[in-house]
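In this section we walk through a basic example: taking a raw amino acid sequence and producing a predicted 3D structure, encoded as discrete structure tokens. The instruction is simple. Fold the sequence below.
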Amino acid sequence: MTKDVLLSISGLQFAAKDEEDIEPVEMITAGDYYKKNGKHYILYDEVMEGFDGNTKNIIKLTEDSLDITKKGISNVHMVFEKNKKNVSYYNTPFGSLLIGIDAKSVDIAETESHIDVKIKYNLEVNYEHLADCSITMSIQSKESGDFTLS
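The resulting token sequence is shown next.
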């Protein structure tokens, strides 16, 4: 994997009863990649519409977990570990939310120039179940030239 990467992130939220209004959230951006002590790190900036400045994101991958740290307009440290619930405050310009992430599966597949991540989790806000969610990430070297969405 090279330092310069393309990152695709897509997520789905399945409301408890009304699954007809499912709209995926998708983003493709450039980022920086490095590997240190057996962990993969992806860094990228995120712009929030209507706000000055940006949010710096750090994704840390191990063989069985995903950490996402956001610093800037929004601030949070989210941890996705299979069969473990992690709780954190998600600070936004509109206020803070207490979120719980209960990961059901964390699947990470790696090749020389590509990393695929698939996570399924339950999302809680203020100790109330909000939605069943999934995240799919595709990270690959810019030079590979065959960027495709999963």
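Looking at the output, two observations stand out. The beta strands are 4-15, 25-36, 39-47, 54-61, 65-72, 76-81, 85-92, 95-110, 114-125, 128-141. The chain has one domain: 4-144. In the next section we compare this with other chains.
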